[in-house]
Amino acid sequence: MPSPEEVCRRVLERITPGQAERERVLALAEGIMARLRSLLAEEGLEADVRLEGSLAKDTWLSGEADVDIFVRFRPDVPKRFFKERFLALARRAAEGLKQVERYAEHPYLECLADRVRVNIVPCYAVRPGEWLSATDRTPYHTDFVRSHLDERLKGEVRLLKKFMKGIGTYGAELRVGGFSGYLCELLVLYYGGFLEALRGALKWRKGIVVDISGYYGGREDEARELFRHHLIVVDPVDPGRNTAASVSLEKMCLFMAAAREFLARPREVFFFPPELPVKSDAELAEQIASRGTSLLAIRTRVAGLPPDVLWGQVRRTLRALRGTLKNEGFRVLRMGAWSDEVEECVLIFELESSRLPPVVKHVGPPVWVEEHVERFLAKQMANPALVCGPYIEGDRWVALVRRRWPDAKELLRARLSEGGGRQVGVAPLLAQRVQEYFQVLEGAELISLCRELEGFREWLVEFLVGRPRWLAPAR
Amino acid sequence: MPSPEEVCRRVLERITPGQAERERVLALAEGIMARLRSLLAEEGLEADVRLEGSLAKDTWLSGEADVDIFVRFRPDVPKRFFKERFLALARRAAEGLKQVERYAEHPYLECLADRVRVNIVPCYAVRPGEWLSATDRTPYHTDFVRSHLDERLKGEVRLLKKFMKGIGTYGAELRVGGFSGYLCELLVLYYGGFLEALRGALKWRKGIVVDISGYYGGREDEARELFRHHLIVVDPVDPGRNTAASVSLEKMCLFMAAAREFLARPREVFFFPPELPVKSDAELAEQIASRGTSLLAIRTRVAGLPPDVLWGQVRRTLRALRGTLKNEGFRVLRMGAWSDEVEECVLIFELESSRLPPVVKHVGPPVWVEEHVERFLAKQMANPALVCGPYIEGDRWVALVRRRWPDAKELLRARLSEGGGRQVGVAPLLAQRVQEYFQVLEGAELISLCRELEGFREWLVEFLVGRPRWLAPAR
After folding, report:
1. Is A192 found in the same domain as A174?
2. Residue B230 lies in a domain
3. What is the ipTM of this complex?
């Protein structure tokens, strides 16, 4: 087995941009920035156009360049200006590129030049701590990282980012719930390198505080109290901000687990996960049928929801429907969701079984809660579904009755048909869409989704395997 | 609907012994006592022969007389004397009656004259608090009750006892886990009557202290701390003893529930529950099949276990096997046990289903428990039963695997075949017997038990109904 250092060396060669790529991407960035500057000047607008992000910090990955151009306005520029005039200006600067308007806290322009994504983002030139918008910190982040990273550490950041991408923990967006690029940079800075960061992560526990600026030195409990998060990485540019707020517990743990596995069995697969074999409809149908579990899918349309809103709604809805299924006695093994982030969305629940035995135990009130007892007994004695009892168990009345919902598919259909499932906790924007359209599919019926939804087949194949690709089979 | 008082009046007429019955039973008792006295005198033994129990207190029920004859010895008589000579003496005194030796704390003789049970019990003449054996308190109980009960209260005690018998809460023996006759007497004394006791019981909660002698006046918490029981009725003869120690929570609650129901809907059915209709094999088989649950029975032989030992072992075993079933994922709706207390014993579990879906989720260790993680991953990656994963959920590794025991009957058979189930918590004396012989039966197979075991059919019919017979259908 190669040493971790050897693997890192080989990976670094593949992910460090070469001279030609650098020049091409920087030329693209500078062209747009120059146009932006002259357009701003034409309009008589005072603003600073800066290159930010991984390109500015030289921590980007070969073949995966993002160009982040920030336009810093004076604080007296009203926010509506961003929406009303800035976007038009940015569009003109990026003329000739494919363009999409995006919204985070305020609107920005995303363009595609070849396979390079260009973001043109407005922000305010303010002093630290006087933030007017979420993007105002970015230039300070860039400055902080640039002033602390030497050439070696830039490579180490590239390794950590590529590792995070390979294991699926890269990205602060809700869909991923993972580590931002800036967070990767801070971790490399704090621990002094890629392998050092992995080794450091092995010691993480819920509530770990990584405080690069030492702001909370000796007062880590204060940081824990303030941030109330399983992973706290204090932003050196703004000690009131947890750079790791986006990281879900699961992604924190996935990173820790992968770090442990990589240090024990270093391989390139962590950075370059192989594609899973494509499965035909017949193969998939056979796999689902022989699996022994029940797969349920809810399909709905989600046009008009920005990704972070969509995934927030999806998360809440998954949790709510899992609760609904559990309440009726179904054992939910796993759940997940797929979306093209444009039009289609599929929620998946894997159950031990979508059919439950016909009789269920209803645990009623303790014998001394007179009012409830009378109601329970009156109800059960008149219940045509009563199978046995009511009788007393411990200090409570209980009864065995025929189950109302022995079939999970019917249960979900019924619940989603009532106001889009709003009453069982389907998130409001999703419930609106469910009211207009939804399908509940089970087992081999999911194959139709593989045919109709591009990308769903691959997602499903991975979901069915479940296992991280980097987990070594022989141990 | 009749008033409670009217129902009581009618019941009292039926359960109060008439003159002829009284004379017959007392003559029987006095005959044996006279013989005992002269035999003791012949042997030169100094001992006091006394009539105790409900006959002495005149709280017995017509048709259900028990004759309790106590022989009080001086404290210097060694305990082995009871075993070596007392029993022989008692046997001679009760010559002509059917006799069985019984053991509580020490041996005594039980005889049957017609349908009257006669117990001849040795004890020590000691002062209160200087008890040498458990039966030494009895004469003091008798004296206490006799000196406090007037004619009206004797009738009230009869009502409470008959009520307790009717609803199945009468008897301190482990099989019942209910209220002793003395406890019924104390409750009537404390509350001042039968209906008053029912009304009083409605106010009981876990940890209620009924302190007739006022010994713990204002220090009820001390009594709770001392006795640690849901129902505490302080023995006025020995404040260190909880007369209600034998009452299980379930029987306490059953009594409370029946009390509430009787006061709301007074009927004689509480005192004289009707027999359930006898069911044929075919009817029972049909009822079991259409019920929708799974019934599992474990049959074993229990010869040689005194009832209280047997039922103690049965209780522990039921709890242990319920745990075994639950641990493997089975949902246990109810359980119960039948025994003839001589030879045969049947444990019953009613499950939602005796078959479980083929796949189960194994929740492994949190990612940071290195040693356990390595063991879990090594095991699962080599597990031929692995279906999905291992993957990370929250902070833990989990895996979906084929279930080891999808069939409850096979599970029970396998567990009971290993040392009689000792390792899964079958109580030791029962495990010995299970090692020699057991059967696991399911569903319609239980019919064979109805044919072979006298009394089991009736028990099963009642178990299947579950509902107390006194619960009014229309409410």
Report:
1. yes
2. yes
3. 0.93
